[in-house]
Amino acid sequence: MDTGIKSGTSATIYILLGIIALLLAGNAYLFLTRDDAKSNLITIREEKAFLRQELNKLKTELDKVNSLNLDLSAELRTRQAQLKEKITQLQEALQNNKLTARQLQQAKSEVVGLRNYVGAYLAEIGSLKKQKSKLLAENEDLRSKVDVEQQRNRELATRNVELTEKISEAALLETEKVHIITFYSRMDDGREYEDQTSRAIRANKLRIEFSFYPNQVAEEGEREIYFRIFDPNGKLLEAIGNGTPAFNDPNGESVACTAKTTIFYSRANPVYAVELPRENNLEKGLYNVHLFTSGRRIGEGKFSLR
Question: What parts of the sequence cross the membrane (predicted)?
Fold first, then answer.
């Protein structure tokens, strides 16, 4: 009897020990499983944070392209828009807290591919930037050369003006001799008779003879010669006949004259002469005769009447 009771007690003890062992094993499995799940959750969070960071970097790099002020082609602008759209889609996917491990792995693969694609795109943009910098440098060099040429042209133009002025000055005629003779002129039987005189009461005609210094620069051809004759009081003798001849001086001012004539200038340097009839109203004293052409004075002479 005692033996049977002991056998039953022992069996119960063994059963309880087995149950306890099972419970311990279950608790241990649950503990280990919970740690793995917690570890996996942490890993997923870290990977999502890393992917967000990568996407933000890619988006920043794409945004920098706009600050380069490059003239992008339509194809490059389209690619840029597509890349930004893909980045936005991945960012929205990572915001999904129900993202599975498989979806996370797929997102990682897409980010890697996107990084490579953005890298290729930025490399192309970099090449375009270098081309732009090269073109800017070439344009700057060309602009510098153009500035140099323009400055050289301005200097040449200035020198040409100076040379032209020097040639004009060199071509200006200058009288070598001016000789004035006064006459008493009368008509007899249709013929004119002249008597040289220095008496104011008789003189009614002037003959002005003049010649020029040799000038091989001055062109041969017609020249208008103007005469301004001043009486002993410094008064300009008025012109005889209709109208008063005049010329414009270098300042554009009109200058009245006593007379003018047209000659044919020749480098052979002949003596030119012009006769000016006057009325018998000349005063006694010293007269000054100034000769002009092309608006400039080219010589002078004097004569006296008594």
Answer: 12-32
